[in-house]
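Cross-check.
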Amino acid sequence: MTARAGGSMGCLARLVRRCLFVCSLLGAALVSPAAQALEIALLLSEQKGAAQQFVHALQAALKPGMHRVVQAGAVRQGLQPEGVEGADLIVAAGRDAAEAALRDSDRPVLAALLGVRDVERLRAAYPNRRLGAVVLDQPPARHLRLVRAILPQEARVGALLGPDSRHFESELMRAGAAERFEVDVFEISDGRELNGALQFLLDKAGALLALPDGVVSSPNAARAILLTSYRYRRPIFAFSAAYVTAGALAAVFSTPEHIANDVADLLGTDLLSTGGVAQLASGVRYPERFDVAVNRTVARALGIAVPDDQVLRERVASRGEGRR
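Predicted model, tokenized:
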């Protein structure tokens, strides 16, 4: 009896140790999300418009309980410093918010609702600060895939670039080669060069690509581009739904809601295994989510048969182009 009792006690002890080991593993698994939870300060350029749309979409998209989000105010309505001081990361919606976060805090910054050129300028102004971004700009390849989806036989595309968009030239050339386009690029530095640039490009190319730029996409420039393209009967491919409403044939673009969901995806990743805050606050990321818009009245006037929007989205979509 004694031997059997001793053996039973030994088995019981081994079972207890095994249970404790399994429980410790389970406990580690259960606490791991907390280990990567962040306190995030949400800073806006202003409490309205695109920034406010971004906030609502971000709050809806974030996984419940993963991070603590603190409202840090808006640049134009007054900051809340106490919301920034203890943050692990500042999510800044808009260029002004990103600049305020870099200037007035030492926290890492993940910026949204700004362009690639804005990020480059902020990095030049604050070279020792940690700054990452999800930009509004689309990857040039995405623009050209839209052109290809609508004009499958076209061989030549013109691209009008200005001071804020000239950095896209090399990417445009690579994307053009991938889509079997010859891309003609004309760079201008101010509006006085616009008419000559349009004549050069529209004489040669079957379509014109307009990218966001302080000079090229100003209201006066957009009006001149649309009027001149009508005279040449050349379609314009643009970067916003508003441009399409004004008369461009089609555009690929991302909304504040798209950007917010992309940011939520980044914040929902396993930060411990992907570099944590340092990884978030570095690099320029193109938006993963996007939409297309088509002006079908313009398409009919130009005699262009355009697939439906869902087909266009499928043809434009591509993986692996998120980081610049």
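The radius of gyration is 26 Å. The first helix runs from residue 2 to 35. Passed to J.P. for a second look.
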